[in-house]
Queue: 3 jobs
Job 1
Amino acid sequence: MANTPGASPKAEKGSGGKEQKSTVTFGSRRARGRADATFKGFAYGAGILIILTLGAVFIFLLVESYPAYLATSEEIRKGASFTQGLNFWQYAGAALFGTILASLIALLVAVPLSIGIALFISHYASRRFATGLGYIIDLLAAIPSVVFGLWGIRTLEPMIRPIFDWIESALGPILQWWVDYVPFMGEENGLARFDWWPLQPDLVNFVPPARNILMGGLVLAIMIIPIITSLCREVFLQTPRLLEEAALGLGATRWEMIKMTVLPMGRSGISSASMLGLGRALGETMALLMVLSPGLAVNFAIMSPGQHSTIASQIALNFPEAAPGLPSQVLVGIGFLLFVLTFIVNWGARRIVARTSVK
């Protein structure tokens, strides 16, 4: 009987300890539940805020530019002298054509070079050298576009003139023979009479200085190479080591190993990097504004100055002096077209990435 009273406090103490432990566990679960709910609400709120911001930009551009879409050609010519006598859709089409042309030239130059640099860093260079080169590539991506523009017009343009002269002397006679002797290619009754047909001598008709769309595309390519290279490098480094060793163990050379394992595994990453570089090229302003001699022609005279311009450079060139009303509405209107173009490019990039990742 003496032990009974002593046993009861131990049991109560033990049961009390269990109750305290369960209370603490229940409280921590409630705290975690509140934290999860708070984070979930914050994430949903951030997503909704992005959608609302995008919708607000879309509505603003559409409302501000709507009068320009309805204006007559005569009103556009009188109210917005920077259109050079074109109506709104002709002006917008010429600027849109120059934007796409410069961006495609940049992609054609930048993507192969970026893939080669990324493969060198990830699979050929020594670890120490690859680390230093990777830092340099990342730093190049942080250089402002105005610096690229200054460097392009003061340094790259004099260096590129002899190359353009050589291209004209090498390809000009070939294109001229193509127009003169190939059926349906002549300037009178063939495709060469159309400005939009690229295979004609005007394609390589170089007129110095090199302030043309090809020069602008080269400057854009140099600007987007760091972005594409950095992303491709990280994608190539994610290739499973076992796959690479298995290919080398079967007797493949290093290039055959890269062709069989690294490049197929990195297709979606290469597509994503290319589309990100394309988005940077589409919206670039200052570098092209400093390099290009602007024009509003729709042709493929990519080595002649005064032929092409881009939407962003047209807005930057004319908006500070545009009067309120129709002139500013025209510029906002072409800005809306650039917004739509960027949206379409991003949507297409997501589709390409999804398709290549599934395969």
Job 2
Amino acid sequence: MTPAELETARKSAVLGNLPPPLQEKMLEGSQIQTADTGQTLFLQDEPADALFIVLDGWIKLYRIAANGTEAVVSVMTRGRSFGEAVALRGLSYPVAAEAITPSRLLRLDALRIRHHLQSDPVMATSMLAATFVHLQHLVEQIEGLKARSGVQRVAEFLLDLAPCTEGECSVALPYNKALIAGRLGMKPETLSRAFARLREHGVRIDAARAHIEDMDRLRQLTAEDPAKAWLR
């Protein structure tokens, strides 16, 4: 693991609340796992024998419904962790995980971590904090689906990816538009219409890159009452 990757792992939800000595203890026995685009890390309903921290790349978490439809639950990137809650309870993964770009992950053995948690309440509290972070993300995701228009959801997605906070900004779209649509709870054609609508707000989509004229203007769009569109 490179120094930069170690720093990424230390700042993750799993390790971020621990003092350095306990971080080292948690990292004992961890392994670097690489994944090519399209490679499966684990399948839905497999025993959860590990939890993961993304060091680089993008990972898709998804479920397959009884009718065969794929539902994208989340897309994880550098610094995000997943699999904690089920791995620490010895359950099965409720989702499948697949690399959607070449990726590097830190794999922590669930059995080893469970042993540490049983002997150290500080570690147990840290893990609870990590699961709370994921709960917050899910609540925010549900709020976005329920309380924001499709255009607002896409705008917020671009703001989250943007490397700048003000002025003009160019944003690389990290994965294909069909997956973006699934992540945002849309159909691909709805996403295309949302991209077209964003031109009115100074956003131009050019292949796999979004060009934003004014970050503040786009931020104002995400805060706007979705019902306002009906009054225009």
Job 3
Amino acid sequence: MSSQKQDPVHIAEEELTRLGIRAFESLGLPPQDAADVVQVLVLADLFGLATHGLSRIESYGERLQVGGINPRARIRVERPAPGLCLVDGDNGVGPLVGMHALRAAMNAASECGVGMAFARQSNHFGPISPYGLIAAQAGYASIIGSNATTTIAPWGGTDARVGNSPIGFAVPNPDGAHFLLDMAMSVVARAKIRNALKAGQDIPDTWATDASGRPTTSPKAALDGFLLPIGGHKGYGLALMVDLFAGLLSNAAYLTHVKSWVDAPDQPQNLGHFFLLIDTRKLGSTQWLAERMNDFARILHGSAAADPARPVIQPGEIELAKMARQKEQGIALDADVLALLRRHADAKPA
């Protein structure tokens, strides 16, 4: 019988936050910068997005230790126009750059109604939904995106030239569940293909191609090939649009100019992000917005479920319910992640 994976450990949000901040401080970040990073990653864990939560201490930590990420980034924000912000991340930890860009876009939107921040010289910034939630809680609707290392072939192509670039949308509900949509451009993550390989199972031929660009049901061939985008050529076009905004317009790297943090952990990635925020309070009262958002959700929920065990939901409801539950009961964290956090937290600061 194979040895079973350890059960997750449950830890209170406040305790995990303190531990995460200590761990990033020991990796060389100033206290406020560490707090920004941890706010995003703890929110990811609260949502149940464990792959993008504090488990990222492993990859971020390794790159901080080999000089691939700057622990003392001096982030600069320029305002070339009233509603437009340019954020130079100085090769800082991605969620730190992301939080600076989010705040810059929020400030611009509060003044102009709409605020846009383009960030460059950044790194992997976690999932998008935490930023969408922070913005929504402050009354802003948002469209947020980032580019990524190339894992997708151009539509009809035979080599990886397009990133699995995520995009997210959020609309606040002042009296109910915020709308939160956070998605990458591939049909599935590579982790799902790796799991199929371990289990000795075939995969649907809509998930990936082999190295020659042909759809495959073999997880091994898929891992040697490329992920397929959602919606075929439409997903390919959407991935390019995200990279044009996040990479090209931000003056960051784009497409194959983005370095792989796996292949070159000691090199700056120069990832780019964009944050487009709308101050909903300029459109109407909070009561007006709440009534319309609740009606919007009611219309969706009113559709009879094809499977009674799976009622119709609005994007974000699963994550927000999980967050409420884990705030009460503690955050489920992989035991190995907790051990690594403690090891960093107890280490002598860099």
